[in-house]
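Section 5.1 Outputs to date
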Amino acid sequence: MLKHRGFPGRLPGTDFQFVIRRANKQGATKIIKRERFRDRAPADKRADAGFMAALWAQFGEEPFERGNLDAGRLSWLFGREVVPAEEPFDPASYDALLKIDVAKAQIAFPEVFDNAEEFIWDDDEEGDWA
């Protein structure tokens, strides 16, 4: 499993996890498309935006390997802002390639692209970097 160095481990000041520390012995958790309803809590929406900001800062428009990115957090964006970058796509593989659908991401998370400085990650916060 590829570990994405420099990627924030979680949304600062919260327990919203962005990466996992080690591979699951039974294999990677399958990435699924989770529905985001309008009445989601503001903290959940902020975690989605923070995760998208971290993906954008780390990978931009380039395809990226799933590696140690958290399947649960990816699932909130999968099928919309984050899409498979290869065919066939294995949603239960740490080696699966993904990419950001920039057009959809800009619509869903305009604050990530308009105010990138809002999402500056503090690497001094203990335990937040993988």
